[in-house]
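Q: I have 536 residues here and want to know how they pack in 3D. Can you give me a structure?
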Amino acid sequence: MATTIHSPIIEKAAGAGGPSYSAEFLRVKAMAERGVANAQHSLGFMYFNGQGVEQNFELAAAWYRQAANAGLEHAQYNLGVMYQKGQGVDLDYQEAAHWYQLAAEQGYAAAQYNLGWLYAKGQGIEANTERAMYWFSKAAEQGDAGAQNNLGMMYDTGKGVPQDFRQAIMWYRKAAEQGYARAQFNLALRYENGQGVAKDPAQALSWFRKAAEQGYAAAQFNLALRYDKGEGVAQDGEKAVKWYTLAAQQEHVSSQFNLGLIYDNGHGVPRDEQKALQWYRRAAEQGHAAAQNNLGLRYAHGQGVVQDYAEAEQWFRRAAEQGFPAAQHHLGTLYENGQGVVQDQQEAIFWYRKAADQGHLRAQFDLGLRYEAGQGVPQDYRKAMGWYLRAAEQDYVAAQYMLGLLFDNEAGPAPDTVRANEWYRKAAEQGHTLAQFTLALRYDNGQGLPRDFGAALGWYLKAARQGHARAQLNAGLMFMWGQGAAADVEQAYRLLAMAERGGAPGAAKYLQQCAARMDATSLALARSRPELLTLA
Protein backbone atom coordinates (compact mmCIF):
# COMPACT_ATOMS: atom_id res chain seq x y z
CA MET A 1 0.00 0.00 0.00
CA ALA A 2 1.44 3.39 -0.98
CA THR A 3 1.54 5.84 1.92
CA THR A 4 4.28 8.11 0.65
CA ILE A 5 4.06 11.84 1.30
CA HIS A 6 4.00 13.41 -2.14
CA SER A 7 6.32 16.30 -2.82
CA PRO A 8 5.16 19.70 -4.06
CA ILE A 9 7.17 21.51 -6.71
CA ILE A 10 9.36 23.98 -4.81
CA GLU A 11 11.40 26.49 -6.76
CA LYS A 12 14.94 26.32 -5.50
CA ALA A 13 18.37 25.72 -6.91
CA ALA A 14 19.41 22.07 -6.97
CA GLY A 15 21.85 21.32 -4.20
CA ALA A 16 21.24 24.67 -2.51
CA GLY A 17 22.71 24.96 1.00
CA GLY A 18 21.10 25.90 4.30
CA PRO A 19 20.85 29.69 3.76
CA SER A 20 18.93 29.40 0.47
CA TYR A 21 16.57 26.89 2.08
CA SER A 22 15.94 29.37 4.88
CA ALA A 23 15.18 32.07 2.39
CA GLU A 24 12.94 29.70 0.47
CA PHE A 25 11.21 28.71 3.68
CA LEU A 26 10.53 32.35 4.56
CA ARG A 27 9.22 33.05 1.06
CA VAL A 28 6.89 30.04 1.11
CA LYS A 29 5.77 30.80 4.65
CA ALA A 30 4.82 34.36 3.73
CA MET A 31 2.73 33.12 0.80
CA ALA A 32 1.12 30.42 2.94
CA GLU A 33 0.11 32.97 5.57
CA ARG A 34 -1.58 35.00 2.83
CA GLY A 35 -3.76 31.94 2.10
CA VAL A 36 -2.07 30.57 -1.05
CA ALA A 37 -3.05 26.90 -0.99
CA ASN A 38 -0.05 25.59 -2.96
CA ALA A 39 2.28 27.46 -0.60
CA GLN A 40 0.46 26.05 2.41
CA HIS A 41 1.02 22.58 1.01
CA SER A 42 4.67 23.33 0.27
CA LEU A 43 5.15 24.66 3.79
CA GLY A 44 3.61 21.47 5.21
CA PHE A 45 6.03 19.45 3.12
CA MET A 46 9.00 21.49 4.39
CA TYR A 47 7.96 20.91 8.01
CA PHE A 48 7.39 17.23 7.29
CA ASN A 49 10.88 16.70 5.88
CA GLY A 50 12.80 19.27 7.94
CA GLN A 51 13.62 21.14 4.76
CA GLY A 52 14.91 24.60 5.64
CA VAL A 53 13.31 24.32 9.05
CA GLU A 54 13.34 21.90 11.96
CA GLN A 55 11.17 18.84 11.28
CA ASN A 56 7.74 19.15 12.92
CA PHE A 57 4.95 16.71 12.02
CA GLU A 58 2.31 18.65 13.95
CA LEU A 59 2.94 21.85 11.97
CA ALA A 60 3.18 19.81 8.75
CA ALA A 61 -0.30 18.41 9.42
CA ALA A 62 -1.64 21.84 10.30
CA TRP A 63 -0.46 23.40 7.01
CA TYR A 64 -1.55 20.37 4.95
CA ARG A 65 -5.00 20.74 6.55
CA GLN A 66 -5.29 24.37 5.44
CA ALA A 67 -4.38 23.44 1.88
CA ALA A 68 -6.64 20.38 1.98
CA ASN A 69 -9.58 22.48 3.18
CA ALA A 70 -8.94 24.72 0.21
CA GLY A 71 -9.48 21.67 -2.02
CA LEU A 72 -5.86 20.92 -2.99
CA GLU A 73 -5.90 17.21 -3.82
CA HIS A 74 -2.24 16.43 -3.08
CA ALA A 75 -2.60 18.11 0.32
CA GLN A 76 -5.71 16.02 0.98
CA TYR A 77 -3.73 12.91 0.07
CA ASN A 78 -0.75 13.81 2.28
CA LEU A 79 -3.03 14.62 5.20
CA GLY A 80 -4.67 11.21 4.71
CA VAL A 81 -1.23 9.58 4.86
CA MET A 82 -0.47 11.34 8.14
CA TYR A 83 -3.75 10.13 9.67
CA GLN A 84 -3.10 6.62 8.42
CA LYS A 85 0.37 6.57 9.98
CA GLY A 86 -0.40 8.65 13.06
CA GLN A 87 2.23 11.28 12.20
CA GLY A 88 1.59 14.65 13.82
CA VAL A 89 -2.01 13.56 14.50
CA ASP A 90 -3.63 10.62 16.27
CA LEU A 91 -3.81 7.54 14.05
CA ASP A 92 -7.31 7.58 12.60
CA TYR A 93 -8.24 5.41 9.60
CA GLN A 94 -11.63 7.05 9.31
CA GLU A 95 -10.05 10.50 8.91
CA ALA A 96 -7.53 9.00 6.47
CA ALA A 97 -10.38 7.56 4.39
CA HIS A 98 -12.18 10.94 4.44
CA TRP A 99 -9.19 12.83 3.02
CA TYR A 100 -8.32 10.09 0.52
CA GLN A 101 -11.92 10.15 -0.69
CA LEU A 102 -11.76 13.90 -1.36
CA ALA A 103 -8.49 13.56 -3.28
CA ALA A 104 -9.63 10.41 -5.09
CA GLU A 105 -12.77 12.10 -6.34
CA GLN A 106 -10.52 14.74 -7.91
CA GLY A 107 -8.72 11.98 -9.81
CA TYR A 108 -5.59 11.78 -7.64
CA ALA A 109 -4.25 8.29 -8.43
CA ALA A 110 -2.27 7.67 -5.22
CA ALA A 111 -5.34 8.58 -3.14
CA GLN A 112 -7.50 6.29 -5.25
CA TYR A 113 -5.04 3.47 -4.63
CA ASN A 114 -4.89 4.04 -0.87
CA LEU A 115 -8.65 4.39 -0.63
CA GLY A 116 -8.95 1.07 -2.44
CA TRP A 117 -6.69 -0.51 0.18
CA LEU A 118 -8.79 0.85 3.04
CA TYR A 119 -11.90 -0.64 1.44
CA ALA A 120 -10.06 -3.94 0.91
CA LYS A 121 -8.89 -4.07 4.53
CA GLY A 122 -11.97 -2.52 6.14
CA GLN A 123 -9.86 0.13 7.86
CA GLY A 124 -11.80 3.28 8.76
CA ILE A 125 -14.63 2.22 6.46
CA GLU A 126 -16.62 -0.96 6.05
CA ALA A 127 -14.79 -3.57 4.00
CA ASN A 128 -16.15 -3.61 0.46
CA THR A 129 -14.34 -5.50 -2.28
CA GLU A 130 -16.45 -3.87 -5.00
CA ARG A 131 -15.44 -0.36 -3.86
CA ALA A 132 -11.85 -1.51 -3.50
CA MET A 133 -11.99 -2.81 -7.06
CA TYR A 134 -13.53 0.46 -8.25
CA TRP A 135 -10.81 2.66 -6.79
CA PHE A 136 -7.98 0.32 -7.76
CA SER A 137 -9.35 0.39 -11.32
CA LYS A 138 -9.45 4.20 -11.31
CA ALA A 139 -5.81 4.38 -10.17
CA ALA A 140 -4.71 1.56 -12.47
CA GLU A 141 -6.18 3.29 -15.52
CA GLN A 142 -3.94 6.25 -14.69
CA GLY A 143 -0.92 3.97 -14.68
CA ASP A 144 -0.50 3.47 -10.95
CA ALA A 145 1.62 0.31 -10.78
CA GLY A 146 0.57 -0.66 -7.26
CA ALA A 147 -3.09 -0.48 -8.22
CA GLN A 148 -2.44 -2.47 -11.38
CA ASN A 149 -0.76 -5.18 -9.32
CA ASN A 150 -3.66 -5.23 -6.85
CA LEU A 151 -6.16 -5.55 -9.67
CA GLY A 152 -4.11 -8.47 -10.93
CA MET A 153 -4.27 -10.07 -7.50
CA MET A 154 -8.05 -9.61 -7.32
CA TYR A 155 -8.55 -11.29 -10.71
CA ASP A 156 -6.02 -13.93 -9.69
CA THR A 157 -7.89 -14.91 -6.52
CA GLY A 158 -11.42 -14.11 -7.68
CA LYS A 159 -11.82 -11.62 -4.86
CA GLY A 160 -14.57 -9.12 -5.74
CA VAL A 161 -14.59 -10.28 -9.38
CA PRO A 162 -14.93 -13.60 -11.20
CA GLN A 163 -11.54 -15.31 -11.22
CA ASP A 164 -9.79 -14.58 -14.52
CA PHE A 165 -6.14 -15.53 -14.88
CA ARG A 166 -5.77 -13.75 -18.23
CA GLN A 167 -6.97 -10.46 -16.74
CA ALA A 168 -4.65 -11.02 -13.80
CA ILE A 169 -1.70 -11.55 -16.14
CA MET A 170 -2.57 -8.40 -18.12
CA TRP A 171 -2.54 -6.20 -15.01
CA TYR A 172 0.54 -7.87 -13.54
CA ARG A 173 2.36 -7.26 -16.80
CA LYS A 174 1.38 -3.57 -16.91
CA ALA A 175 2.77 -3.07 -13.41
CA ALA A 176 5.80 -5.30 -13.99
CA GLU A 177 6.81 -3.41 -17.10
CA GLN A 178 6.85 -0.25 -14.99
CA GLY A 179 9.38 -1.96 -12.71
CA TYR A 180 6.95 -2.78 -9.87
CA ALA A 181 8.77 -5.59 -8.05
CA ARG A 182 5.73 -7.29 -6.49
CA ALA A 183 4.06 -7.54 -9.90
CA GLN A 184 7.28 -8.88 -11.44
CA PHE A 185 7.30 -11.56 -8.76
CA ASN A 186 3.62 -12.40 -9.33
CA LEU A 187 4.19 -12.62 -13.07
CA ALA A 188 7.14 -14.94 -12.49
CA LEU A 189 4.95 -17.25 -10.41
CA ARG A 190 2.37 -17.43 -13.20
CA TYR A 191 5.01 -18.35 -15.78
CA GLU A 192 6.39 -20.91 -13.35
CA ASN A 193 2.98 -22.54 -12.78
CA GLY A 194 1.50 -21.99 -16.26
CA GLN A 195 -1.47 -20.10 -14.81
CA GLY A 196 -3.03 -17.80 -17.42
CA VAL A 197 0.04 -18.18 -19.65
CA ALA A 198 1.96 -21.06 -21.16
CA LYS A 199 4.42 -22.48 -18.64
CA ASP A 200 7.78 -20.89 -19.35
CA PRO A 201 10.65 -21.46 -16.87
CA ALA A 202 12.92 -19.01 -18.70
CA GLN A 203 10.35 -16.19 -18.41
CA ALA A 204 9.75 -17.09 -14.78
CA LEU A 205 13.47 -16.89 -14.07
CA SER A 206 13.76 -13.55 -15.89
CA TRP A 207 10.95 -11.94 -13.87
CA PHE A 208 12.21 -13.43 -10.59
CA ARG A 209 15.60 -11.90 -11.35
CA LYS A 210 14.14 -8.46 -12.14
CA ALA A 211 12.24 -8.41 -8.85
CA ALA A 212 15.20 -9.83 -6.92
CA GLU A 213 17.55 -7.17 -8.28
CA GLN A 214 15.16 -4.56 -6.86
CA GLY A 215 15.51 -6.13 -3.43
CA TYR A 216 12.20 -8.00 -3.32
CA ALA A 217 12.89 -10.68 -0.72
CA ALA A 218 10.45 -13.36 -1.95
CA ALA A 219 11.96 -13.13 -5.43
CA GLN A 220 15.48 -13.31 -4.01
CA PHE A 221 14.45 -16.47 -2.18
CA ASN A 222 13.03 -18.03 -5.35
CA LEU A 223 16.15 -17.12 -7.32
CA ALA A 224 18.31 -18.62 -4.57
CA LEU A 225 16.27 -21.85 -4.70
CA ARG A 226 17.03 -22.19 -8.40
CA TYR A 227 20.76 -21.76 -7.89
CA ASP A 228 20.58 -24.08 -4.89
CA LYS A 229 18.87 -26.89 -6.82
CA GLY A 230 20.16 -26.14 -10.32
CA GLU A 231 16.65 -25.55 -11.70
CA GLY A 232 16.74 -23.52 -14.92
CA VAL A 233 20.29 -22.39 -14.12
CA ALA A 234 23.58 -24.14 -13.46
CA GLN A 235 23.76 -25.22 -9.82
CA ASP A 236 25.83 -22.61 -7.99
CA GLY A 237 26.12 -22.73 -4.20
CA GLU A 238 27.80 -19.33 -3.95
CA LYS A 239 25.01 -17.57 -5.86
CA ALA A 240 22.40 -19.44 -3.83
CA VAL A 241 24.03 -18.20 -0.62
CA LYS A 242 24.24 -14.66 -2.02
CA TRP A 243 20.52 -14.45 -2.82
CA TYR A 244 19.41 -16.28 0.33
CA THR A 245 21.52 -13.88 2.38
CA LEU A 246 20.03 -10.78 0.73
CA ALA A 247 16.53 -12.07 1.49
CA ALA A 248 17.47 -13.31 4.96
CA GLN A 249 18.82 -9.88 5.90
CA GLN A 250 15.29 -8.59 5.21
CA GLU A 251 14.03 -11.19 7.73
CA HIS A 252 12.72 -13.54 5.03
CA VAL A 253 12.32 -16.51 7.31
CA SER A 254 12.54 -19.35 4.76
CA SER A 255 15.79 -17.88 3.45
CA GLN A 256 17.17 -17.79 6.98
CA PHE A 257 16.22 -21.43 7.48
CA ASN A 258 17.72 -22.51 4.14
CA LEU A 259 20.95 -20.70 4.97
CA GLY A 260 21.03 -22.66 8.19
CA LEU A 261 20.65 -25.90 6.21
CA ILE A 262 23.35 -24.91 3.72
CA TYR A 263 25.91 -24.09 6.41
CA ASP A 264 24.83 -27.16 8.40
CA ASN A 265 25.44 -29.51 5.46
CA GLY A 266 28.31 -27.64 3.79
CA HIS A 267 26.31 -27.52 0.57
CA GLY A 268 28.22 -25.22 -1.78
CA VAL A 269 30.02 -23.51 1.12
CA PRO A 270 32.43 -24.70 3.81
CA ARG A 271 30.48 -26.34 6.63
CA ASP A 272 30.06 -23.88 9.51
CA GLU A 273 28.08 -24.99 12.56
CA GLN A 274 28.07 -21.55 14.12
CA LYS A 275 26.65 -19.85 11.02
CA ALA A 276 24.09 -22.63 10.74
CA LEU A 277 23.13 -22.06 14.37
CA GLN A 278 22.93 -18.29 13.85
CA TRP A 279 20.53 -18.60 10.91
CA TYR A 280 18.44 -21.32 12.55
CA ARG A 281 18.07 -19.08 15.59
CA ARG A 282 17.00 -16.04 13.56
CA ALA A 283 14.40 -18.11 11.71
CA ALA A 284 13.28 -19.83 14.93
CA GLU A 285 12.78 -16.51 16.69
CA GLN A 286 10.45 -15.49 13.86
CA GLY A 287 8.40 -18.64 14.44
CA HIS A 288 9.75 -20.97 11.72
CA ALA A 289 8.80 -24.41 13.06
CA ALA A 290 11.48 -26.44 11.26
CA ALA A 291 14.14 -24.01 12.47
CA GLN A 292 12.79 -24.27 16.01
CA ASN A 293 12.99 -28.05 15.75
CA ASN A 294 16.58 -27.91 14.45
CA LEU A 295 17.56 -25.51 17.20
CA GLY A 296 16.02 -27.91 19.72
CA LEU A 297 18.13 -30.72 18.26
CA ARG A 298 21.27 -28.60 18.68
CA TYR A 299 20.56 -28.14 22.39
CA ALA A 300 19.52 -31.76 22.85
CA HIS A 301 22.76 -33.05 21.31
CA GLY A 302 25.09 -30.26 22.44
CA GLN A 303 25.94 -29.50 18.83
CA GLY A 304 27.57 -26.06 18.62
CA VAL A 305 26.07 -25.17 22.01
CA VAL A 306 26.31 -26.47 25.55
CA GLN A 307 23.92 -29.42 25.87
CA ASP A 308 20.77 -28.16 27.56
CA TYR A 309 17.66 -30.33 27.54
CA ALA A 310 15.54 -27.61 29.14
CA GLU A 311 16.40 -25.24 26.28
CA ALA A 312 15.78 -28.05 23.78
CA GLU A 313 12.37 -28.63 25.33
CA GLN A 314 11.42 -24.96 24.89
CA TRP A 315 12.27 -24.98 21.17
CA PHE A 316 10.68 -28.37 20.53
CA ARG A 317 7.52 -27.19 22.29
CA ARG A 318 7.28 -24.00 20.24
CA ALA A 319 7.49 -26.04 17.04
CA ALA A 320 5.26 -28.82 18.38
CA GLU A 321 2.51 -26.36 19.29
CA GLN A 322 2.57 -25.21 15.66
CA GLY A 323 1.86 -28.80 14.66
CA PHE A 324 5.38 -29.69 13.46
CA PRO A 325 5.41 -33.50 13.73
CA ALA A 326 9.17 -34.06 14.13
CA ALA A 327 9.22 -31.64 17.08
CA GLN A 328 6.18 -33.36 18.59
CA HIS A 329 8.06 -36.66 18.42
CA HIS A 330 11.21 -35.14 19.93
CA LEU A 331 9.16 -33.58 22.71
CA GLY A 332 7.61 -36.96 23.40
CA THR A 333 11.09 -38.47 23.62
CA LEU A 334 12.13 -35.87 26.23
CA TYR A 335 9.08 -36.77 28.32
CA GLU A 336 9.75 -40.47 27.91
CA ASN A 337 13.35 -40.10 29.13
CA GLY A 338 12.80 -37.28 31.63
CA GLN A 339 15.25 -35.01 29.83
CA GLY A 340 14.67 -31.32 30.59
CA VAL A 341 11.20 -32.20 31.93
CA VAL A 342 9.75 -34.43 34.62
CA GLN A 343 9.48 -37.94 33.18
CA ASP A 344 5.89 -38.52 32.14
CA GLN A 345 4.87 -41.50 29.99
CA GLN A 346 1.36 -40.15 29.42
CA GLU A 347 2.72 -36.85 28.13
CA ALA A 348 5.14 -38.76 25.91
CA ILE A 349 2.27 -40.79 24.46
CA PHE A 350 0.26 -37.59 23.93
CA TRP A 351 2.99 -36.04 21.77
CA TYR A 352 3.82 -39.28 19.96
CA ARG A 353 0.16 -39.57 19.01
CA LYS A 354 0.08 -35.97 17.78
CA ALA A 355 3.03 -36.69 15.49
CA ALA A 356 1.78 -40.13 14.46
CA ASP A 357 -1.62 -38.76 13.43
CA GLN A 358 0.24 -36.50 10.99
CA GLY A 359 2.09 -39.44 9.46
CA HIS A 360 5.39 -39.18 11.35
CA LEU A 361 6.88 -42.62 10.77
CA ARG A 362 9.02 -42.95 13.87
CA ALA A 363 6.15 -41.78 16.08
CA GLN A 364 3.83 -44.34 14.50
CA PHE A 365 6.45 -47.02 15.07
CA ASP A 366 7.04 -45.93 18.66
CA LEU A 367 3.31 -46.04 19.38
CA GLY A 368 3.21 -49.54 17.93
CA LEU A 369 6.03 -50.59 20.27
CA ARG A 370 4.21 -49.16 23.27
CA TYR A 371 0.91 -50.88 22.49
CA GLU A 372 2.72 -54.15 21.86
CA ALA A 373 4.64 -53.93 25.16
CA GLY A 374 1.89 -52.20 27.17
CA GLN A 375 4.24 -49.35 27.97
CA GLY A 376 2.27 -46.26 29.08
CA VAL A 377 -0.87 -47.71 27.49
CA PRO A 378 -2.85 -50.95 27.98
CA GLN A 379 -1.27 -53.74 25.97
CA ASP A 380 -3.18 -54.06 22.71
CA TYR A 381 -1.70 -56.10 19.84
CA ARG A 382 -4.38 -54.96 17.43
CA LYS A 383 -3.58 -51.27 18.00
CA ALA A 384 0.10 -52.10 17.80
CA MET A 385 -0.50 -53.75 14.45
CA GLY A 386 -2.49 -50.72 13.28
CA TRP A 387 0.34 -48.30 14.04
CA TYR A 388 3.01 -50.61 12.60
CA LEU A 389 0.91 -50.95 9.46
CA ARG A 390 0.64 -47.18 8.98
CA ALA A 391 4.41 -46.83 9.19
CA ALA A 392 5.12 -50.00 7.20
CA GLU A 393 2.94 -48.86 4.31
CA GLN A 394 5.20 -45.79 4.08
CA ASP A 395 8.21 -48.14 3.78
CA TYR A 396 9.44 -47.68 7.34
CA VAL A 397 11.60 -50.77 7.46
CA ALA A 398 11.62 -51.39 11.23
CA ALA A 399 7.81 -51.32 11.24
CA GLN A 400 7.70 -53.78 8.33
CA TYR A 401 9.82 -56.23 10.32
CA MET A 402 7.75 -55.79 13.50
CA LEU A 403 4.58 -56.29 11.48
CA GLY A 404 6.07 -59.53 10.17
CA LEU A 405 6.71 -60.66 13.76
CA LEU A 406 3.13 -59.83 14.79
CA PHE A 407 1.65 -61.79 11.88
CA ASP A 408 4.04 -64.60 12.84
CA ASN A 409 2.79 -64.63 16.43
CA GLU A 410 0.20 -67.34 17.00
CA ALA A 411 -1.04 -65.40 20.03
CA GLY A 412 -1.29 -62.22 17.99
CA PRO A 413 -4.45 -60.59 16.62
CA ALA A 414 -4.19 -62.11 13.13
CA PRO A 415 -1.71 -64.99 12.74
CA ASP A 416 -0.83 -65.33 9.07
CA THR A 417 2.46 -66.88 7.92
CA VAL A 418 2.00 -65.74 4.33
CA ARG A 419 1.50 -62.11 5.31
CA ALA A 420 4.35 -62.37 7.80
CA ASN A 421 6.65 -63.49 5.00
CA GLU A 422 5.42 -60.67 2.77
CA TRP A 423 6.40 -58.08 5.38
CA TYR A 424 9.70 -59.83 6.12
CA ARG A 425 10.48 -59.66 2.41
CA LYS A 426 9.66 -55.93 2.18
CA ALA A 427 11.94 -55.22 5.11
CA ALA A 428 14.65 -57.57 3.82
CA GLU A 429 14.65 -55.87 0.42
CA GLN A 430 15.31 -52.57 2.21
CA GLY A 431 18.34 -54.12 3.93
CA HIS A 432 16.89 -55.01 7.34
CA THR A 433 19.34 -57.61 8.68
CA LEU A 434 16.96 -59.53 10.93
CA ALA A 435 14.34 -59.66 8.19
CA GLN A 436 16.94 -61.00 5.74
CA PHE A 437 17.96 -63.71 8.22
CA THR A 438 14.33 -64.60 8.99
CA LEU A 439 13.45 -64.84 5.30
CA ALA A 440 16.49 -67.07 4.75
CA LEU A 441 15.29 -69.38 7.52
CA ARG A 442 11.85 -69.57 5.87
CA TYR A 443 13.34 -70.67 2.56
CA ASP A 444 15.74 -72.98 4.37
CA ASN A 445 12.95 -74.75 6.28
CA GLY A 446 10.07 -74.30 3.83
CA GLN A 447 8.05 -72.34 6.39
CA GLY A 448 5.23 -70.60 4.55
CA LEU A 449 7.38 -70.66 1.41
CA PRO A 450 8.51 -73.43 -0.97
CA ARG A 451 11.82 -74.82 0.30
CA ASP A 452 14.60 -73.21 -1.75
CA PHE A 453 18.24 -73.57 -0.63
CA GLY A 454 19.46 -71.15 -3.29
CA ALA A 455 17.12 -68.40 -2.08
CA ALA A 456 17.97 -69.26 1.53
CA LEU A 457 21.70 -68.93 0.86
CA GLY A 458 21.16 -65.63 -0.96
CA TRP A 459 19.36 -64.09 2.02
CA TYR A 460 21.82 -65.57 4.55
CA LEU A 461 24.64 -63.93 2.62
CA LYS A 462 22.91 -60.55 2.59
CA ALA A 463 22.53 -60.69 6.38
CA ALA A 464 26.09 -62.06 6.72
CA ARG A 465 27.46 -59.02 4.89
CA GLN A 466 25.91 -56.89 7.62
CA GLY A 467 27.61 -58.89 10.39
CA HIS A 468 24.80 -61.22 11.44
CA ALA A 469 26.71 -64.07 13.11
CA ARG A 470 24.05 -66.77 12.76
CA ALA A 471 23.59 -65.89 9.08
CA GLN A 472 27.36 -66.23 8.66
CA LEU A 473 27.22 -69.62 10.40
CA ASN A 474 24.33 -70.93 8.29
CA ALA A 475 25.82 -69.65 5.04
CA GLY A 476 29.14 -71.24 5.97
CA LEU A 477 27.46 -74.58 6.57
CA MET A 478 25.62 -74.37 3.24
CA PHE A 479 28.91 -73.77 1.41
CA MET A 480 30.53 -76.60 3.37
CA TRP A 481 27.79 -79.11 2.46
CA GLY A 482 26.99 -77.72 -1.00
CA GLN A 483 23.43 -76.61 -0.28
CA GLY A 484 22.14 -73.81 -2.52
CA ALA A 485 25.50 -73.55 -4.26
CA ALA A 486 28.44 -75.77 -5.18
CA ALA A 487 30.47 -76.85 -2.16
CA ASP A 488 33.26 -74.36 -1.44
CA VAL A 489 35.22 -75.07 1.73
CA GLU A 490 37.28 -71.88 1.48
CA GLN A 491 34.12 -69.78 1.39
CA ALA A 492 32.72 -71.90 4.18
CA TYR A 493 35.84 -71.45 6.32
CA ARG A 494 35.87 -67.71 5.98
CA LEU A 495 32.15 -67.43 6.81
CA LEU A 496 32.48 -69.77 9.77
CA ALA A 497 35.48 -67.82 11.02
CA MET A 498 33.40 -64.66 10.91
CA ALA A 499 30.58 -66.43 12.75
CA GLU A 500 33.03 -67.61 15.46
CA ARG A 501 34.30 -64.05 15.95
CA GLY A 502 30.69 -62.93 16.20
CA GLY A 503 29.96 -65.46 18.95
CA ALA A 504 27.57 -67.74 17.04
CA PRO A 505 26.96 -70.91 19.08
CA GLY A 506 28.57 -73.97 17.46
CA ALA A 507 30.68 -71.94 15.04
CA ALA A 508 33.98 -73.10 16.57
CA LYS A 509 33.05 -76.79 16.21
CA TYR A 510 32.00 -76.38 12.57
CA LEU A 511 35.08 -74.30 11.84
CA GLN A 512 37.25 -77.22 13.01
CA GLN A 513 35.28 -79.63 10.82
CA CYS A 514 35.70 -77.33 7.84
CA ALA A 515 39.46 -76.99 8.46
CA ALA A 516 39.79 -80.78 8.54
CA ARG A 517 38.43 -80.95 5.00
CA MET A 518 40.92 -78.41 3.60
CA ASP A 519 44.46 -78.96 2.35
CA ALA A 520 47.27 -77.06 4.07
CA THR A 521 47.67 -74.48 1.29
CA SER A 522 43.97 -73.54 1.16
CA LEU A 523 43.76 -73.39 4.94
CA ALA A 524 46.81 -71.17 5.24
CA LEU A 525 45.45 -68.82 2.57
CA ALA A 526 42.02 -68.62 4.22
CA ARG A 527 43.59 -67.88 7.61
CA SER A 528 46.09 -65.33 6.34
CA ARG A 529 43.68 -63.43 4.11
CA PRO A 530 40.19 -63.56 5.57
CA GLU A 531 39.36 -60.29 3.83
CA LEU A 532 39.29 -62.16 0.51
CA LEU A 533 35.80 -63.34 1.40
CA THR A 534 33.68 -62.97 -1.72
CA LEU A 535 29.97 -63.20 -1.14
CA ALA A 536 27.87 -64.26 -4.11
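Q: Anything worth noting?
A: The radius of gyration is 37 Å. The first helix runs from residue 18 to 33.
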